[in-house]
Structure formats: C-alpha cells, structure tokens
Design goal:
Elements lengths: L3 E5 L4 E5 L4 E5 L1 H4 L4 E4 L2 H12 L1 E2 H8 L4 H16 L3 E5 L2 H4 L1 H7 L3 H4 L9 H9 L2 E5 L3 H12 L4 E5 L24 H10 L6 E5 L17 E4 L4 H14 L2 E3 L2 E4 L2 E4 L2 E2 L7 H10 L21 H20 L9 E6 L4 E6 L6 H4 L4 H4 L1
Parallel strand pairs: 7-8, 7-10, 8-9, 10-11
Antiparallel strand pairs: 1-5, 1-6, 2-3, 3-4, 11-14, 12-13, 13-15, 15-16
Helix pairs in contact: 9-13
GO molecular function: nucleotidyltransferase activity; SUMO activating enzyme activity
Protein name: ThiF family adenylyltransferase
GO cellular component, one term: cytoplasm
C-alpha cells in the first residue's frame, strides 16, 4: 500500500473563519446545510489548513513541529475528534487515479458514500458493491418504474421484473418513464428496454405473469431485496411468507390516494417488524382502520399525480439504496411515513414494540434482545 493521505472527506463543507479562529463543518446526509461550529486553538487552525489540501500523518506532524507531550496529546485529540465525527478520512495517495473508471461515471455520487464508508469499505468499494446487487421488482407501473429509474442511476443493472400488465395511456399521466410508443406493450418489456438504454452492463430477467402463490416467487431466490409496487393486496401476504422463509428483505414502497400517501420501511426478516404487524399496529393503535364500515361507492377511482408518485419512489428508492450499501441502515426501519401534499405535512409513526404483533408472536428476536 502506498502513502496514506489524511484529508477532509469530499462531501464535507468546511467554512473557516481565521480571524475568529472558528470553523463550521457540515456533512450533507447528517447535517444538511447546517453544521457544527468549533473554536480552534492555534494548532487546530493549522491542522484545518493542512487537512483541506490532504497530507500524510508523518508530514503533518513534521509541519506542526510537535515538541511537548501536551502538544502531542492535543494533536491526537483533534485528529480523533475529526475522525470519529467522519469529517476526515484516510485514503491511499492518488486514489482517484486508481478508481478512475468508476470515478468518471459516478464521480458526483461517490462522495456521498464517504459519510457511510468504514475502515474496511471505502466509498469506492460501496459504489462497486451497490452495482453488484440484484433487485426483484413486483409491479412495473407508476411507483415500480419510479424506483427502477432511480436504482439505475446508482449503477444497479441486475433485475428480476414481474408484472402481467401492459402500458396504457393513463400510465403516462402518473410518471415519466413510459412514452406514447410504449402503449399496449408489456410493462416488463418496456422496463427492460428502459434499463438497457441506460446501463451497459445489465442482466434483466422478465416474467409477464401475476403472483398468485409462494412458488411463483422462486424466480426471486437470488435477489438481494424484493420491491413490492403492486396494488394487489393478496400479493403482500404471499411475499411476506416467502420473505420469512428465505430471509430476503422486502420494500413494500408505499401507496397514495389523492393528496395523501404513505411509505413503508424496508422489512428485514427477524430484524424489524413484518408487514402484517405494521398494518395491524396502524389499525389498532393509530386508529387508521376502516373496520366496521361498508363500502357503498364501488365506482370510486383512486386519484393520483406524478408529483406524489415521484415523492414516494424517491424516498423508497433511497431507503433501498441505503440497505444495499451494507454500511448503514435505512431511516424508516421501525417507522411509517405519512404525508399530505395539500399542505406538505409529514408524519412519522414509530411502531411501538410494546403493542406490535411481532413481539406478541415471538417472531422478532433481535428487537427483543
């Protein structure tokens, strides 16, 4: 291994006020535009200047001319703080040249992974790992295609696509991936073509069929996650049985009606709450139930628009991507997100272990420990 360089990670914003001897450090995934302000000692000010450019540890020590034990202790404390807060990273000199091919394509994306890289997996490793994943999609309509389009942008080209429907004219009013030329064509065929036109290295298996049994899901046996974007409720129960049996994670994405909608967490068997537990909790504890009511308007049409479906697919896809990195957890692990586009209100509901059916049934061992 060559010389190891210490520098601020590429996503970290550094705002230095030299006259006041203060610095504001901001990480976009964690802090957004707001960061933490730190008062600087003379040594801290010098270290910030060097770390912006990148420098080896030995060279940094030499330039700071550390002599007393107090100076050496202060140096180590500052370095430890910047490392533990993930402001700085350690990488081989000329790392960009080493990863030139992947940098040319994903150079604007890779810095984001710097916030979740580990000692054993740097941001380039994370990007390569994401690109190696295989995703199963059940339902290639509005939300399904929205999620596919976003997974493709991070380099995922290995898919199993299942849908028995064809593209209709009304599909074009809810998302932008279909065109007039696609009307009447199989959705899985159109989705496959969409991916092939955006990624050179792709492997796409398509199944123009409806999921009616657990056996139908055997085509998903080697995927890393299953994305459920179907509006057929009986599919959810079938997939949950399959997921529990195989241990494969599931994203049930979300749904919408008019201006309101919801986004479910990525569900990992034996780690967080199962789908039926979440539904049960929302109905029993949160009062989001229609039990006891009889539907008398059978001609009701679910209204929707592309802004809402894009909102759902954007959040759901980023939760899926975070899961696939293997170095961070999705935010909605134990939460369901409800939103209202009429006032842009967002409500998080956390599934309380004390009232969930997973715990009562003894099917969530890791949350009990």
């Amino acid at each position: 291994m060559g010389i190891v360089i210490i520098r601020f990670k590429p996503y970290v914003k550094v705002l230095l006020n030299e006259s006041n001897k203060e610095v504001i450090l901001s990480r976009p995934m964690k802090d957004g535009d707001h960061g933490d302000k730190y008062e600087l000692s003379d040594m801290g000010l010098e270290m910030i200047r060097y770390l912006v450019q990148g420098i080896s540890r030995q060279k940094l020590i030499e330039n700071l001319k550390l002599e007393s034990q107090d100076e050496k202790t202060e140096f180590e404390e500052i370095l430890e703080l910047l490392t533990s807060m993930k402001y700085i990273g350690y990488e081989e000199e000329n790392a960009n040249e080493k990863y030139k091919d992947i940098e040319q394509i994903y150079g604007r994306l890779i810095p984001l992974w710097g916030e979740i890289e580990t000692k054993d997996m740097n941001r380039y490793d994370i990007q390569k790992s994401i690109m190696s994943k295989k995703v199963g999609i059940i339902g290639c309509g509005t939300i399904g295609m929205g999620i596919i389009s976003k997974l493709v942008t991070v380099g995922i080209g290995n898919f199993v696509l299942v849908d028995n429907d064809v593209v209709s004219r009304t599909n074009l009013t809810r998302q932008c991936s279909f065109t007039l030329k696609d009307i009447g064509k199989s959705k899985v065929e159109v989705a496959k073509k969409f991916i092939q036109e955006r990624l050179e290295n792709n492997k796409i298996d398509i199944y123009n069929k409806k999921i009616t049994s657990v056996e139908d899901l055997n085509v998903m046996d080697d995927v890393d996650i299953i994305v459920v974007a179907s509006d057929e409720q009986q599919v959810d129960t079938i997939i949950q049985k399959y997921s529990i049996h195989t241990g494969i994670a599931v994203s049930y994405s979300g749904g919408y009606t008019g201006n309101t909608g919801k986004i479910f967490p990525v569900i990992i068997p034996n780690i967080n709450h199962q789908y039926d537990c979440i539904i049960d909790y929302l109905q029993r504890v949160e009062g989001k139930s229609t039990e006891g009511y009889r539907e008398i308007n059978n001609g009701f049409k679910v209204s929707s628009n592309s802004s809402i479906s894009e909102f759902i697919s954007s959040i759901a896809s980023f939760e899926i991507i975070k899961f696939l990195t293997g170095t961070t957890s999705p935010y909605l692990m134990d939460k369901v997100l409800f939103f209202n586009f009429s006032n842009y209100g967002i409500e998080e509901i956390t599934i309380d272990n004390a009232h969930c059916s997973c715990i009562r049934n003894g099917s969530l061992p890791l949350l009990q420990s």
